[in-house]
Design goal:
392 residues; mainly alpha; three-stranded antiparallel β-sheet; 13 helices; 58% helix; 11 strands; globular
Length: 392
């Protein structure tokens, strides 16, 4: 009995499986792990007859997402945010392992699936939080920023104009999410403009700076700088150089600290240093990176003696986005300490925390056989692919 009902999916999986040994030869063990994780993801999360994915494995009809701006319903397919993680993972693999190996997967599965979320009913165009054939759903600025970053990276890696065109189309939506309230900044949700969040402004800065590097257009550099400075002014905790989650229009701070928020400010600071040469940006990125290491990692004692330093129990994707910042900083100062902490975490997780299908619930391995979130598996593939590129 064939594993996949869709011939197109079966074709793409054959391409990915066949590429595994070649990827391992080029990028070593981490590249092999990235491929294996992605293979498992598509094997177990794919919805037959579509290019879409389930939100969880095992599928849970009672599941309701808690990360939206309101109530969610039990759905057949994942929301945009978890699906977008597959674009990030495959974009990195295109960048590090080549178009010939991962381009077919991108064009035959990932992008057709992503188009299902494209909202052409509202202007400017953006990707909605759920598929367009369903009743209209909210549109989130941060969801679209992650996509825009991926499309910009795809353009940089391949020089295919279609990717830059899509990134710049997304930027028009992001720009529409700003106003003068609180002195600027990007909202979180188009339909519920109650807060301006680090998760839309820090990656918004990264997105703009990457667009500047891709196009040379000065207004992208200026927007990136403005968003970076606004986020430092409004959401930085000066006591530890980490970033709060959001600020309401009434000026109330949500002081929760997530790894991806600070990680994106590290990346933005490193990019600003690369572009401008101003040492202040590098110093600020280093300060936040040092605090991330002490705040988001913990020592773990091994059964046979000794210990490793691994990430605390948190959403795995948040940590994958923090890794992007660490890698950007490493490219500027060459310091391996932050990457070493990720290597320890990933090596420990690969051996001790995955379930029988290769999936990860959290870094600790607790709840190993429970429900697994799509975005976590995509993030794991992304991290291994990124580490393959910075590991000899």
């Amino acid at each position: 009995m064939p594993l996949f009902k869709s011939p197109a999916l079966a074709f793409v999986f054959c391409v990915v499986f066949a590429s595994g040994s070649a990827a391992a030869d080029r990028g070593g063990e981490y590249a092999r792990r990235a491929t294996a994780t992605l293979d498992s993801l598509y094997t177990y999360y794919s919805v037959p007859g579509t290019r879409l994915l389930r939100e969880n494995y095992p599928d849970d009809a009672s599941y309701k997402a808690t990360y939206l701006a309101g109530e969610s319903a039990a759905n057949q397919f994942s929301y945009l945010w978890p699906f977008s993680g597959t674009l990030s993972a495959v974009a990195v693999l295109v960048e590090t392992q080549g178009w010939e190996t991962y381009g077919p997967l991108l064009d035959s599965v990932v992008l057709p699936g992503l188009r299902e979320y494209g909202d052409v009913r509202r202007r400017p165009f953006a990707y909605a939080s759920y598929i367009a054939s369903a009743p209209a759903s909210d549109r989130f600025y941060d969801d679209n920023i992650w996509l825009g970053i991926d499309f910009t990276d795809l353009y940089t890696a391949t020089r295919q104009q279609r990717f830059l065109d899509e990134a710049e189309r997304i930027w028009l939506f992001i720009a529409s999410g700003t106003d003068d309230k609180l002195g600027g900044g990007i909202y979180w949700c188009e339909q519920k403009k109650g807060s301006k969040n680090t998760c839309s402004n820090a990656p918004g800065a990264v997105f703009a700076l990457k667009l500047y590097l891709a196009t040379g257009k000065e207004h992208y550099l200026e927007q990136g700088r403005i968003l970076y400075e606004w986020t430092r002014k409004r959401l930085l905790d000066p006591s530890d150089n980490l970033y709060f989650d959001n600020i309401s229009l009434k000026g109330t701070l949500n002081k929760t600290k997530f790894s991806y928020n600070s990680g994106q400010m590290i990346q933005a600071g490193a990019l600003l240093y690369r572009i401008t040469g101003k040492k202040r940006y590098l110093a600020e990125a280093r300060e936040t990176a040092a605090s991330c290491l002490s705040h988001f990692f913990r020592p773990l004692h091994k059964p046979g003696g000794g210990s490793v330093r691994i990430l605390r129990r948190d959403k795995i994707w948040f940590d994958a986005v923090m890794l992007r910042g660490f890698i950007e900083l490493y490219r500027e100062d060459g310091r391996e300490v932050y990457l070493d902490a990720f290597r320890e975490t990933l090596d420990h997780a690969w051996t001790h925390a995955r379930d029988s299908r290769g999936f990860l619930a959290d870094w600790s391995g607790r709840g190993r056989e429970g429900r697994k979130w799509l975005l976590s598996q995509a993030a794991l593939a992304e991290m291994f692919a990124r580490m393959a590129d910075v590991t000899d």
